[in-house]
């Protein structure tokens, strides 16, 4: 579904624009040079993208990126417009939901395309629009402020995901060092590791995007918006530091779990070896006296049988005491 609004400097409220009149609205924005046309597409269909291609001067490579849901996070220039691809992350039903948001903009228009997998709802834009409406009263750079509000909202969402990852790591740490659920821990660790890899792949490149915008590599970004972009870059750097810490902690948890399992297996082997020795010695004595040879010691005396049993018991008790003293049993 395509929606559009026109923002004019000095006018607080946005003017809704019919999707069928985008061409004329774009011409008015270009003619006035003091207005911005904002277009939003949620879960675009092929027909929606074709309509945008017929209305906006989109480069063919930009259209290819809009049709793909697996682009990397990036900032690129195609002709007279720029393309930012970022990912919105959110914990949904104990899993990491990843949705792509494309932002394509020129001097007098800005397009947002919100992708969503089947069965998912596209990421809402209301939080970013609320920031935009509060910030545009302090500046006349509607384009830069709108772009900042989208990126700032997305990066703020990364902190929510980081806290969720911290909670999962804390839960794994408790189980690892409590020594419970040894079989479930590797799966939990690798599920968190998979989500952490997806988190890093989506979030880390935002640093380069925000840094480029803060240095005003895009000619239509004003100084106030560039300063705001620098704050986004700072938050992205904090997220990167958090991700590095979480990766190190996850590696330490996996190594700790493997060490605990190894120690547990060593304890099991010591106990099995101890019990094997306790069984082996009496079996050896009984085997010797069961060979039915003549002239064997204690074979012809009346107390031979109880003496052999006493020998078995004494040796077994001695071995048991030895293993207990060394905590093998």
Total of DSSP H or I helical runs spanning 4+ residues: 9
Residue stretches low in confidence (pLDDT < 50, at least 5 long) are none
Measured by DSSP, the beta-strand proportion falls in 15-25%
Indicate the radius of gyration in whole angstroms. Answer: 35 Å
Q: Look at the helices and sheets and give the structural class.
A: alpha+beta
In total, how many beta strands?
7
Judging from the principal axes of the Cα atoms, what is the shape? rod-shaped
The CATH superfamily title of the domain at 1-122: CorA soluble domain-like
Mean pLDDT: 85
Multimeric status of the protein: single chain
CATH class category name of the domain at 1-122: Alpha Beta
Largest sheet, described in full? Answer: 7 strands, mixed
What sequence of helices (H) and strands (E) makes up the elements?
A: EEHEHHEEEEHHHHHH
Portion in helices: 55-70%
How would you write the strand order of the largest sheet?
2-1-3-7-6-5-4
Quote the distance from N terminus to C terminus: 70 Å
Descriptive key words:
single chain, 329 residues, alpha+beta, Beta Polymerase, domain 2, Methane Monooxygenase Hydroxylase, Chain G, domain 1, seven-stranded mixed sheet, rod-shaped
Structure description:
By secondary structure, the chain is of the alpha+beta class. Strands 2-1-3-7-6-5-4 form a seven-stranded mixed beta sheet, sandwiched between helices. It contains nine helices and seven strands. The chain is rod-shaped, with a radius of gyration of 35 Å. The protein starts with a strand and ends with a helix. It is 59% helix and 16% strand. Helix 4 (126-135) crosses helix 5 (142-178), helix 5 (142-178) packs antiparallel against helix 6 (185-203) and helix 8 (223-289) packs antiparallel against helix 9 (304-325). Among the domains are: 1-122, Beta Polymerase, domain 2, CATH 3.30.460.20; 264-325, Magnesium transport protein CorA, transmembrane region (Methane Monooxygenase Hydroxylase, Chain G, domain 1, Up-down Bundle), CATH 1.20.58.340. The protein has helices at 22-32, 46-55, 60-67, 126-135, 142-178, 185-203, 206-214, 223-289, 304-325, and strands at residues 2-8, 15-17, 35-42, 74-78, 81-92, 95-105, 109-114.
């Amino acid at each position: 579904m395509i929606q559009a609004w026109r923002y004019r400097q000095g006018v607080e409220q946005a003017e809704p624009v019919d999707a069928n009149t985008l061409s004329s609205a774009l011409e008015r924005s270009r003619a006035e040079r003091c207005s911005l046309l904002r277009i939003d597409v949620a879960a675009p269909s092929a027909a929606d993208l074709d309509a945008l291609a017929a209305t906006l001067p989109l480069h063919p490579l930009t259209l290819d990126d809009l049709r793909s849901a697996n682009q990397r996070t990036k900032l690129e220039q195609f002709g007279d417009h720029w393309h930012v691809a970022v990912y919105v992350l959110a914990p949904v039903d104990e899993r990491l939901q990843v949705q792509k948001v494309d932002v394509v903009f020129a001097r007098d228009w800005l397009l947002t395309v919100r992708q969503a997998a089947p069965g998912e709802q596209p990421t809402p834009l209301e939080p970013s629009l609320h920031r935009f409406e509060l910030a545009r009263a302090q500046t006349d750079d509607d384009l830069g402020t709108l772009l900042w509000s989208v990126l700032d909202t997305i990066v703020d969402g990364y902190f929510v995901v980081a806290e969720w990852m911290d909670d999962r790591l804390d839960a794994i740490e408790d189980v690892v060092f409590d020594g419970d659920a040894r079989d479930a821990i590797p799966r939990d660790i690798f599920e968190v590791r998979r989500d952490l890899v997806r988190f890093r792949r989506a979030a880390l490149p935002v640093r380069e995007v925000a840094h480029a915008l803060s240095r005003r590599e895009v000619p239509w970004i004003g100084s106030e918006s560039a300063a705001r972009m620098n704050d986004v870059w700072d938050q992205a750097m904090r997220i990167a530091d958090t991700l590095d810490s979480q990766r190190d902690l996850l590696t330490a948890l996996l190594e700790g779990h493997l060490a605990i399992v190894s120690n547990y297996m060593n304890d099991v082997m010591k106990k099995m070896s101890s019990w094997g020795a306790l069984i082996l010695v009496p079996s050896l004595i009984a085997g010797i006296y069961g060979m039915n040879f003549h002239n064997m010691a204690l074979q012809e005396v009346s107390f031979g049988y109880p003496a052999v049993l006493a020998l078995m018991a004494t040796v077994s008790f001695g071995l048991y005491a030895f293993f207990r003293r060394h905590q093998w049993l």
